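Please discuss these two lines.
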Amino acid sequence: MNLKDCEAEKLIKRDFRTRGRVPVSLSTAERFLHSAQKNLEIEEYEMVQLAAYYSAFHTSSVKR
């Protein structure tokens, strides 16, 4: 099932209000990525994994 199918089935809908949140999500993703890099330097691998996950989450939540 692709995006258009999901919209047609009313499983998801477009929310144009989210565009204002894009810069915030990208900024948050960047902060988490920086945190992951710093934790990698001090070999805190569990925290690296968490910070990298949150960075990817915030990046993926940005809509086109």
